[in-house]
Amino acid sequence: MNTDGMATRYQPADIENKWYDRWEKGNHFAPSGSGKPYAIMIPPPNVTGTLHMGHAFQDTIMDALIRYHRMLGDNTLWQPGSDHAGIATQMVVERQLNAQGKTRHDLGREAFTAKVWEWKAESGGQIMRQLRRLGASLDWTRERFTMDDALSRAVRTLFVKLYDDGLIYRGKRLVNWDPVLKTAISDLEVENREENGHMYHVRYPFVAGQGLDGQYMHIATTRPETIFADVALAVHPEDERYRAYIGKKVSVPLTGREIPVIADDYVDREFGTGCLKITPAHDFNDYAVGQRHNLPLINILTPDAHLNDDVPPAYRGMERFAARKQFTADLEAAGYLEKTEPHILKRPYGDRSGVVIEPYLTDQWFVDLSSDKGMAKLTQPALDAVRDGRIKFVPDNWKNTYYNWMENLQDWCISRQLWWGHRIPAWYDADGNVYVAENEAAVREKYHLAAEHPLTQDEDVLDTWFSSALWPFATQGWPDDTADLKTYYPGNVLVTGFDIIFFWVARMVLMGMYCMNGEVPFREVYIHGLVRDSEGQKMSKSKGNVLDPLDIIDGIDGEALVAKRTSGMMQPQKAERIAAQTRKEYPDGIAAYGTDALRFTFAAQATMGRDIVFDTKRVEGYRNFCNKLWNAARFVQMQTAGQTITAAPVKEKNAADRWIYGALDRTIRSVREAFDTYRFDFAAQALYDFIWNQYCDWYLELVKPVLGKHNDDDAEKARTRHTLLDVLEQALRLIHPLMPYISEEIWQQTAPLLGTTGDTLMTQAYPTASNGEDPQADAEIAWLQETLLGVRKIRADMNIAPGKPLPLIISGLDDNARGYLAAQERSLLALGRLDSVRVLADGEAEPEAAAFMVGSAKNMIPLAGLIDKTAELARLDKEITKREQNIARLSGQLANERFTASAPAALVEQTRAQLASDEETVAALRAQREKVAAL
User: Fold this and answer.
1) 208 burial class (0-12, 13-18, 19+ CB within 10 angstroms)?
2) N or C: lower Cβ tally within 10 Å for the chain?
């Protein structure tokens, strides 16, 4: 216990680093070794990454669950680690080399890889340090990296196992190709942008001798340079316009090649001309058509997106877009280009390189997910696990997204043309034979190859998502049969965003069930929404609306925020607009709100599966909540330190004590149910209502008459001091999963007064609803609250000074209310600032008074001499006139069509809301004026 007492002001910066260091050094994040296992595997962030709002939201949810289950006594593991992020990390180091006038090829593969490891040691893992600032209670002693020795061994083992089971193959297939990085990339790494482009309408002449001389087939394309790779034109088999041409041949313009006209149901008769060019080597849909019709594949591009030797000599070596320009000009000159039209299209860009991605035909390694064997061994078990409930999605509707993807699976391209990553454990001899094993020595032993038989290892590395798919079991020791694997696999819940259900969630299910004898990798998948800005826009650097969680925690001045938002932009021309927008939205920068306020904001907005609309005003509100809790604790400490404190059965305590215990039990039940059902918003709301409204606003006021100098009952005081402390201590344990820092700081100074000690609050038991509820006490305090609120309303309505003593006369009390009045008269007098309370005698006339009802009882405050009637009427008239003038102004604005049509929607809505508020206020003021005038 801090004998100096609590600081007068809540300063989060003073307590956050202190407590995190103590928690980590005390090894309090490690599993306890007892209780039922509860495990969460953190989605491993990229080693190149920094903490963004999505991470902060996601990690707040995971940490809340882990802290909750740790306090339930579960054997909790929150597994930390990071992903080697093949493309992103290689790009970071390559840029450093480029700045020195070098490339990775100048160093060679081995030296370059060593350079990446050097960068990782010095600069990687920044996000892990930032997670500590968020209060994330990960077991850092178990931190893993997807390319550490143990995980690398697991990756190689899985590759070999899949290969030996006939579930991995190497083949020439179409992939997303990045011509700058010169590697295949996943769909997740492709950003589709809507852009203005062109549609080129091209004529294909029929080959002579078919009775169609001088006639053409017409197609429309946005990529005319791919005409060089056309192998067919396709029409719908039931399209009457083209039925007579099926089987005929046309000439590919400017190439001299002849290609057939084929029929395929894929063709949309209503789109364009109803005739499609088929280019299997450069279009994913065309590839499927080509497979059905056994069409040849013609690749016309080099790895860096220049045209190769399979095009006419005039275009060889040209960059793809330069070739497009030249080719369309030549088509027009030769009479083949019918017209060119503006066209809005979606163009794929690499999210790392920023260049247009090409569908590209190349040799790659694939996991078989679509053949009969692949379906039986991998895909179908993963589908069945969700269908039969072994894995549940929260919210449940996300299972449909999972089904949709799994039921339409294509084989998974797992090779990447990079140097940084898990090198594929396959070797080739001079004859092109492939040998797969964990290392070269294992290859020679497995395939009985002599030491002098020359072998060369495959140059490619594995897709980052391949190693990530092993995360739930490889981190726990697989392929060895470890105690951790038996304890923490399967995990309890995976917390992730909807955008990687395909790329990561499904693949963990596929590989987990394959490697772990059909056991699922986790039992539930909690899908959270995106964090958007205050106007509901997605946060992005290009929009200039990104917020750094640490800036919300620590604060940042306005110009530093502007500099942060406008530096390193891909589109620097937007910097000026973003700077102006930032100065307008945050003229003074962002205040330091602390970690607990940010975490509570995330929890309060974590509605089931919906996006968060993030506004720093909400954080400010919850910072005020922290202040409220801090000041309440200081009050409790001042009332109890050095005083007699007596623990007594709840039933022996006064009504206010029994009421607050009942309210606490209801809150405990609500919060536990909310955590158990992933309703973090319900948990936050229940905690906020109890601590702010019931404990701080009501109970702390109700104890003041008890603890005051006019109460001579020392035993009652001692019991009430215990209640003050006991309820606060339980509330701190209750809120700890969401607000770990402030709860720990206050608990350390509160618990010892109750005789409770411990290194940390986080290992204390989570509260149970076992204090007891008392309906009689609830009714009694509800009567007191309603009466006090009525008195306060009259004070406010009649503009009576808060400290002016008032008389209260009550008529029509029933027996229960008479009992409540007898028990609570002391509190009613003190908290209502009344000079007297009496019951109207039988036959006594009611005085001229302001009145309010509580149940069947009429509560009256005689107003004679309390207010200056003339002055009060004048004040009300002045306020009514002011409001009516504002109503006229706002009504005029809203009647102006130019304003409602051109002003921002938010401003129009704000104006409407202000008008409604003013109209409501005027109505209340007029009603009040009638009351005063009648006095």
Assistant:
1) exposed
2) N
pTM score? 0.87
SS3 annotation, 429-440? CCCCCEEECCCH
d(CA 592, CA 303): 50
β-pair partners for 262: 234
| Angle subtended by helix axes 700-707 and 655-676, to nearest 10 | 150
Q: What is the widest separation between alpha-carbon atoms in the chain?
A: 120
Check residue 548 and report its DSSP letter.
Answer: -
Distance CA 660, CA 780 (A): 12
pLDDT of residue 611: 87
Yes or no: say if 97 and 107 are a contact pair by the CB < 8 Å rule: yes
Vertex 379 angle, CA 377 and 381, to 5°: 70
Task: Determine the length of the chain.
Answer: 935
* DSSP codes of every residue in 600-646: HHHHHT--TTPPEE--HHHHHHHHHHHHHHHHHHHHHHHHHTTS---
Q: b vs e for 479-497, b when ≥16 Cβ sit within 10 Å of the residue's Cβ?
A: beeeebbeebbbbbbbbbb
For 752-811, what is the HEC assignment?
HHHCCCCCCHHHCCCCCCCCCCCHHHHHHHHHHHHHHHHHHHHHHHCCCCCCCCEEEEEE
List 76's β-bridge partners, or say none: 38
Query: What tens digit of pLDDT does each residue of 61-100 get?
Result: 999 999 999 999 999 999 999 999 888 899 889 889 988 9
The answer to whether the peptide bond before residue 904 is cis (omega within 30 degrees of 0) is no
Chain-centre distance for alpha carbon 763? 27
Write out the H or E segment, with its range, that includes residue 386.
helix 380-387
Which H or E element spans position 394? strand 392-394
- 543 has a pLDDT exceeding 80: no
Dig out the tokens for 263 from the structure: 């029929």
Q: Go through 356-393 and write b for each residue having 16 or more CB atoms within 10 A of its CB, e for each that does not.
A: bbbbbbbebbbbbbbeeebeebbbebbbebbeeebbeb
Write out the DSSP string of 890-912. HHHHHH-HHHHHHS-HHHHHHHH
CB-CB contact of 711 with 717 (8 Å): yes
